[in-house]
Amino acid sequence: MRLILLGPPGAGKGTQAQRLVAKYGIVQLSTGDMLRASIGAGTPTGRQVADIMARGALVPDDVVVGIVAERIEQPDARKGFILDGFPRTVAQAVALDRMLAKHGLSLDAVIELRVDEAALLRRIESRIAEMKARGEPLRDDDNPETLHRRLTAFREQTAPLIAYYRLQGILRSVDGMASIPEVTAAIDKALPSEPPASRRDTAPKRAGMAASAGRQAAGVGKKSVKPAPTRRKMASRRKAPSGKRRRQGGRPAPLA
Fold first, then answer.
1. In the predicted model, what is the mean pLDDT of the chain?
2. Mean pLDDT calculated for residue range 218-235
3. Side by side, which strands form the sheet with 171-175?
4. Known catalytic residue: 231?
5. Most Cβ neighbours (<10 Å): which of 22, 176, 193, 227?
6. What is the per-residue pLDDT across 14-59, written as a single tens digit (0 to 9) for each?
7. pTM for the complete prediction?
8. Domain 2-117+158-217, CATH among 3.40.640.10, 3.30.70.360, 3.40.50.1820, 3.40.50.300
9. Does residue 88 have an active-site annotation?
10. Residue 28, H or E segment
11. Active-site residue (options: 79, 102, 127, 155)
């Protein structure tokens, strides 16, 4: 089972991922953890990432996909995985699909947790109040202002993935505002019952669909229209090739 959970920060993706890991015996793959592990292991990609991060630059999409490719080849990921924090953009999603296709794999489902942003803000405010009442330390991002910025980033960068995966036919949407057990039950119901191995032969086709979906999601999926040939071009097409005599009425034309 190979899954992606989509939803804004605070939607409960982490909680549901843990339940899916326990139920299906798959692993949760965090890009941040994978980057750190690759650096620590001293792999070629890890050394490249370390150099990039040392310069304070963003890790390119192809490098992150390379990290994911290394990770899914490990024994504990053979049964399946849930991607956490990746992809974040349509470009990353296209790169991910191509990489999976090279391994003869494809995603089984993308679960969208639909939530109300206003309710999310109220939820985090309530959580902060409860943590303060219990005397628990707060994280730096435990505040409404940070959540608002993260929600804005999600709308601008990650929300287009919903249309991208819908075009592929693998998007499943559930109500993320329901209780945790209800969301879990909805996800279980939305997951495909067909064994993943039986769909491996469709990976190349799915990769082609992914590329097409990426173009459509980016708004560039329109067919180009070739301009009509000019009169001069049409006339040149009607001319007989040089060195050959034209025929008139089925007989050779007289030589000049």
1. 77
2. 45
3. 27-30, 81-84, 2-6, 109-114, 171-175
4. no
5. 176
6. 899 999 999 999 999 888 788 888 888 888 888 888 888 777 677 8
7. 0.68
8. 3.40.50.300
9. yes
10. strand 27-30
11. 127
